[in-house]
Specification:
By secondary structure, the protein is of the alpha+beta class. It folds into two domains: 40 residues; 155 residues, Jelly Rolls (Sandwich). The strands form three sheets. Strands 8-5-10-3-2-1-11 form a seven-stranded antiparallel sheet, covered by helices on one side. Strands 7-6-9 form a three-stranded antiparallel sheet, with no helix packed on it. Strand 1 and strand 2 form a beta hairpin. The longest helix has 37 residues. The radius of gyration is 25 Å and the shape is globular. The protein starts with a helix and ends in a 9-residue tail after the last helix. The relative contact order is 0.17.
Length: 210
């Protein structure tokens, strides 16, 4: 084979290899965009529920994120508290305010959360929130790893994602049932922890903000 033929053969092989790589890369990117489109959640979309009088819209579930995190939107109405004070033992939580104002109580201290405010809540930190303003407040909440979103699916009631709705009354039976189900997901509701005395006595619940 002459040097010229050998050169042309090398060029041809290089072109074939390059073409194959481009084709593979194109397939990968096409697959990525297909999944991105499939997982796109627009405003107002998701699973919307009333959970103990709080309006939540689940946007990302653990089975959609490989169990790494769950994300949802929560609306707290004027004069309303969010979920009763509680402690997570299995996951960390974050809050990011979208609109309105909330009083965030973390480890016994109060903070004002307003539009753009963010806070990270490590597990074992007692926390709650309350809307003391005259307008609905809306925030994004994440849990990592995922799992606690299943509690909302267990105890929640179907709702419409409209913060103009009035929150329903919560019966004592509904609260007791939600507390019991919470224990299945490693959640301790403050004031309902008698059955979890071992964890309380062991000092597992921390107050790092003081």
């Amino acid at each position: 084979m002459t040097p010229m033929c050998l050169h042309l053969l090398c060029v041809a092989l290089s072109f074939v290899i390059f073409s194959e790589r481009v084709a593979v890369a194109f397939c990968i990117r096409t697959d990525f965009f297909w999944h991105a489109h499939k997982n796109l959640i627009d405003a107002g979309e998701g699973i919307t529920l009333w959970a103990l009088g709080v309006l939540v819209t689940l946007k990302a579930l653990g089975n959609e994120t490989g169990g790494s995190y769950a994300l949802f939107e929560e609306v707290v109405f004027p004069g309303q508290e969010g979920l009763p004070g509680h402690v997570h033992t299995l996951e960390d939580e974050t809050w990011y305010m979208l609109e309105g104002e909330l009083v965030w109580t973390l480890g016994g201290q109060d903070f004002l959360g307003k539009k753009g405010s963010f806070i990270h809540l490590p597990r074992f930190v007692p926390h709650s929130c309350a809307n003391k303003s005259n307008k609905p407040a809306r925030m994004v909440i994440t849990y990592a790893p995922a799992g606690f979103e299943q509690w909302y699916l267990d105890v929640g009631k179907p709702a419409v994602a409209d913060h103009r709705n009035s929150p329903p009354d919560v019966s004592s039976e509904e609260l007791s049932g939600a507390v019991r189900r919470g224990k299945e997901y490693g959640i301790i509701f403050i004031g309902h922890e008698d059955e979890d005395s071992e964890m309380m006595a062991s000092g597992s619940i921390q107050v790092p903000y003081q």
